[in-house]
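ok so for the tutorial part 2 we go from a plain amino acid sequence to predicted structure tokens. step 1 is just haveing the sequence, like this:
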Amino acid sequence: MLLTILVIATALSSDGSIIINMSEGETLSSPSRYARWCEKPKLVICSGSNLNIRDIVNAYHKLNQKLSEVVEDKCECSLTPGVIKFGVECFDTSNLYGVTYLNFNIETECLNGSLVQIKKNDHLVLTHEAGHSIGWMHSSRYGHLMFGDYNRAGWSMEGMK
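step 2 — the prediction. this is what the tokens look like for a chain of 161 residues:
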């Protein structure tokens, strides 16, 4: 029997407010992962999203995530096995710069699909959300890429190996 769980992974809040965390309220000083891609995922950049493909691919490169293919295509708000959809327009993100929705198998800890919505198009937000789309949770360490407040996040990737 295939057991899966759907998780809403939050990203960077625009106002510094506490927001839903992937780890059910727990924020770790060094980020850990719920799951990882067991097979190289296909990256679909949603057409009309005005996101720079090179910036997004660079974000995954920075996170050491290999991709099977990168394409630009129309995106629906549904998870597709083996695919990260980047630039979807599915969620109310009134106080968020981005949000990621994941599906993964609890038994194997393998990711099955990710949807990423970006409201603030900059490198930090893109890379932070890419981190969620490959299973990373928030960190409580100021200056860390996976810190949940944009104004206190940074480029430290300590613990993300």
